[in-house]
Amino acid sequence: MIELPAGVRDIAERLSHDRPAYVYDLAGLAAHAAAVREAMAGVELYYAVKANPDAEILRALTPFVDGFEVSSGGELAHVRATAPGVPVAFGGPGKTVAELSEAAGVARLHVESPVELRRLIALGDGPVDILLRLNLDVPVAGAALTMGGGATPFGMDDDGLRECLQLIEGEPCVRLCGVQAHLASGLGAPELLGLARAVLGRARELGRPEINLGGGTAVSYTDPAARFDWAAYGAGLRDLRQEGETLRIEPGRAVTAYCGWYLTRVLDVKRVHGRRFAIVTGGTHHLRTPVTKGHDQPFVTLPGDRPDPEPTTIAGRLCTPKDVFARDVPAALAPGDVVAFAMAGAYAWNISHYDFLMHERPEFHYVT
Ligand SMILES: *Cc1c(COP(=O)(O)O)cnc(C)c1O
């Protein structure tokens, strides 16, 4: 059962008949972030901005995080303007010379390859604090996406690492602070702790104090009530940590997914060749998440339960059969009803192709 927060319900009840809306529950986000902060005591918590860079969200998170992790010059400039003074880490494959130059001295740089390191050294700035991004050859079972544990464009294997260590030797422009590893997304606490053990084993051979274990804390779209076990992850990392080490994590999705709602109204209900469809204002060009991840986006409807729900496919207004939020899900919808899609706070609006078909953009509301 999904609970619609009171402030979100107020907006849903007044929703436009033409235009969908995003609602970010900043009060709910702050409460969640405070709980994560507490569970992760003793571990530095950075938020991966690419999950949702909305300025109000960054401001709401600022009291609870040690920093922000960015993956582009655009995110770097945005974070520095929105949350001045908050520490920043800059990761991601393929940084341009301009990005390296903007980040040098203002962010921890996660170096992805020997080519990137040479480019950074050639800038002649410094000393720049860097972490080397590891791609460890460890099995990553049960992950939603894998960024490591084999041949991927992310980070370095032992050969790349060795080359970087040679480049760094006696080089005044860079200061090696430690290593970073973001090996997979969508993992539970036991799996992440298993990876952490492998990363720490390798990191300690380098003898540097900072170890950034990446993000990847799981979110379940099929079971919205199931939550990542932050308490177990925090306790596990405190156990693993050795004297003098700084452990850092940089989750995105599991921080902001739950605070976002995408509200739409039902425009049409029809049966086509035996299948029931509800067509809503907006579409997956505003909320691409269910298409990219291949799930049914969880939702609540207003007014509440009508009698006799039947399997219904909830589709948007795009002229493509891919524009589907949920397939054959039990619902009893009528034109004018509101469908409030939950878990739309991460990798939702900001990954969506909203200019396709030139529909109006949604409204944005913030519940404080
Ligand atoms: C995307 C990403 C994250 C955040 O991953 P989530 O699955 O959203 O927690 C953290 N670090 C890096 C390097 C990333 O690319």
UniProtKB/TrEMBL annotation:
A GO molecular-function descriptor: diaminopimelate decarboxylase activity
Active site as annotated: C319
Start and end residues of each Orn/DAP/Arg decarboxylase 2 N-terminal domain: 29-257
UniProt keyword list: Pyridoxal phosphate
PTM sites of type N6-(pyridoxal phosphate)lysine: K50
GO process terms (BP): lysine biosynthetic process via diaminopimelate
Keyword Metal-binding assigned: no
Domain Orn/DAP/Arg decarboxylase 2 C-terminal stretches: 22-345
Nucleotide-binding found in the keyword field: no
Cofactor(s) essential for the protein: pyridoxal 5'-phosphate
InterPro entries: Ala_racemase/Decarboxylase_C, De-COase2_C, De-COase2_N, Orn/DAP/Arg_de-COase, PLP-binding_barrel
Assigned protein family: Belongs to the Orn/Lys/Arg decarboxylase class-II family.
Protein name: Type III PLP-dependent enzyme
